[in-house]
Specification:
This protein is mostly helical. It is built from 9 helices and 2 strands, in the order ααααββααααα. Helix 2 crosses helix 3 and helix 3 packs across helix 4. The protein is elongated, with a radius of gyration of 18 Å.
Length: 182
């Protein structure tokens, strides 16, 4: 096997691992990776605003607002006006949100970060350098990306049809066709 084939296989394995985790997460909890990340950020903060959450997860405020709308419809997130400034909207998880978060599996990026942090500095820098080079070789160096491992764009998943926990989500293509038909 040629070296470039080994690289392509490794990239494909990474993509498949992320996709399989995303499916597992959806089946176990009914959540997507970005939703889980937003919920964890809210849980770790003291009533953050959507802007603070957006900065914390490195997504646009519009994308986070769409994700928050979906989580609120499911009863996982509560919004309330600030006491000092009524224009400020503060976020918190509901009891259902805390329960869903507690039942959700560890995210794939948390597992990765834990293992990555155990590497020596030179190994970490080697991986970063190599992956940046691969991204450049794939003309992806200028693509905007948040530090989350998902095979879907957060804005796309936020528009997906709500489903009860335990049901697999429909594919983005099908969701897009349903949106276009309505």
């Amino acid at each position: 096997m040629q070296t470039h084939d080994q690289v392509l296989i490794a990239i494909r394995r990474i993509i498949r691992a992320i996709d399989l985790y995303s499916r597992h997460l959806a089946q176990c909890s009914g959540l997507t990776g970005p939703q889980l990340l937003v919920m964890r950020t809210i849980a770790q903060s003291d009533q953050p605003t959507s802007g603070e959450v957006a900065r914390g997860v490195s997504l646009s405020q519009a994308t986070v607002t769409t994700i928050l709308d979906r989580l609120a419809r499911r009863g996982y997130v509560q919004r309330r006006k600030g006491d000092a400034d009524k224009r400020t909207v503060l976020l918190s998880l509901t009891a259902e949100g805390h329960a869903a978060l507690a039942d959700a599996p560890t995210s794939i990026q948390e597992s990765f970060i834990e293992q990555f942090n155990r590497l020596q500095d030179w190994e970490q820098h080697l991986i970063v350098s190599s992956l940046e080079r691969v991204a450049h070789m794939m003309s992806a160096q200028d693509l905007d990306a948040a530090p989350m491992l998902t095979t879907e764009e957060p804005a796309e998943e936020a528009l997906a049809v709500d489903q009860p926990p335990g049901q697999a989500r429909r594919s983005s293509k099908k969701a897009g066709k349903r949106r276009a038909a309505s």
